[in-house]
Fold this sequence. Notes:
Its EC number is 6.3.2.17. The protein has 499 residues and is α/β, with parallel strands linked by helices. The chain folds into two domains: 43-364, CATH 3.40.1190.10; 372-498, Protein-Tyrosine Phosphatase, Chain A (Alpha-Beta Complex), CATH 3.90.190. Helix content is 39%, strand content 17%. The protein has helices at 2-17, 43-53, 62-71, 90-103, 132-155, 165-179, 217-220, 224-232, 251-263, 334-349, 355-364, 388-401, 421-431, 448-457, 469-475, 487-498, and strands at residues 80-85, 108-111, 123-125, 128-129, 184-188, 204-211, 240-246, 269-273, 296-303, 312-317, 322-328, 372-376, 379-382, 410-413, 435-437, 464-465, 481-484. The strands form two sheets. Strands 4-3-2-5-1-6-7-8-9-10-11 form an eleven-stranded mixed sheet, with helices on both faces. Strands 12-13-17-14-15-16 form a six-stranded mixed sheet. Strand 7, helix 9 (251-263) and strand 8 (269-273) form a beta-alpha-beta unit. Helix 3 runs parallel beside helix 6, helix 5 (132-155) packs across helix 6 (165-179) and helix 8 (224-232) runs parallel beside helix 9. The longest helix has 24 residues, at 132-155. The protein starts with a helix and ends with a helix.
Amino acid sequence: MQQDMKDQSAQHQAASQQVDAPQVVSRQNKTYALPFDVAEYSYEQSLAQLKSALRFGIEPLLETVQDMLAELGNPDSYFSSVQIAGTNGKTSTARYTASLLHAEGYKTALYTSPELVEYPERMEIDGRVVSPQDFAHGIAAATQAGIRVNQKRRAAGLRPYDITEFDTLTVAAMVIYAEKGVQVAVLECGMGGRWDATSAVNSIKSVAITGIGLDHMHILGDTLEAIAGEKAAIIKTGRTCVLGVGTATPASVEDVFLQQASAEGVQPCLLRPKFREQAQAEMHEDIMRAHPDLPASSYEIVHMPQALGDAVCARVTTPRSTYTDLLARKPSYQVANFSLAIVLCEQFLGRTLDEKLVRDAIMACPTPGRFDVVRTAPLALVDACHNPQSVQTFLGSLTSLVPDKTARPALLCAALADKDVNRMVALFSEVFDAIYVTQTTSPRALAAIELADLFVQHGKHPQGVFANVEEACKALSSTAFVACGSITLAGEVVGIMRH
């Protein structure tokens, strides 16, 4: 398999270098301006508007965002976009992609979800979170566009759209990015791909899919293949595509992506580990098949971190180049994410990246909420793992850094009721001796007492059950702990530690 991947890389290198770079800016040398007057919001008013939109929940309808963007003069056509989907790893991959494109000299926007603490964190330009004023302006513009669209629909005898929170945020981001003169926007799918609001953006040139796991099954489907089908829908004619390590297994899932690519006339580039054992947590049980007819990239971890703060070192080989001595003070699972980002950027730009810039961008890229040390003495570490696959990935890194179970920090756990909490609890119970549970402010939060009961069923009796995260953090002020089980928990702990 390893030799096959080397052969594939050599076979496709010359052909790949002949690919024309995508047009990086769709309306180059043109300045975007709102086509109608907008009554500006204060930051507090923008938050109130988003809160009111929560009543619509999740609405799988692209036309809502498409019509709102059209009403605004299609701000998304003033820059090119890259879209990233996947069950796990897509936020980190998006961050690395934005960091690399910025390092290459492009004014780069980043759109991720959800936020850890505050809404504006979802939107960045050149590594900086947009200001509360710009955020409020974007929400005001998106809201006014929605009002105008629904007025026209009512006049035409059509039912008005239920404009969701995510619809509003996505449109607001496109307005802000266009007004700021962004050249490239890196868009993380919120959920799935086919009906995700980011898929309404009409300037997407390249896509990547990190991998597939069982999550959001009530919306995306209850099998890996069904979920893969929803995410594979972002592979479309005219776009370049990279399939991450998590799409390689099982074969039935990989087939979903390859069939979609074939139907759209897209030749995907495959990212695979050079050594299967270096990607166990990211892959499902099955044989990793060779595809000599497709361009391939690979990564190899040449040094594993030995302690918190130690750097992982990797080598990435693409159809165009080999990037060596890539260092990141991150757990080893991030190698798959930044490797995917490198290949995606090459595909988007149609050329090799500057190796020194790549090294600098990988080392400097922040991944908040992902194996994130928010307090050093005593240790408080947060991770946004929130489903069995991501929990397994996190625990693999933690146990490799702290193999002695008695030396590990305590676990502070909270979860959402609509996740596979029982399986996550089983995984946590094998790794931690000292366990504390709490519940977040999310309306989907599992009650702390119910979470505690699940741990008891797995032979672990929590040492503390807290009604909320603030109470838990106060009680653990002199205790080393890791907080994981939901993105909301990671965000609430980060917010408390910041203040």
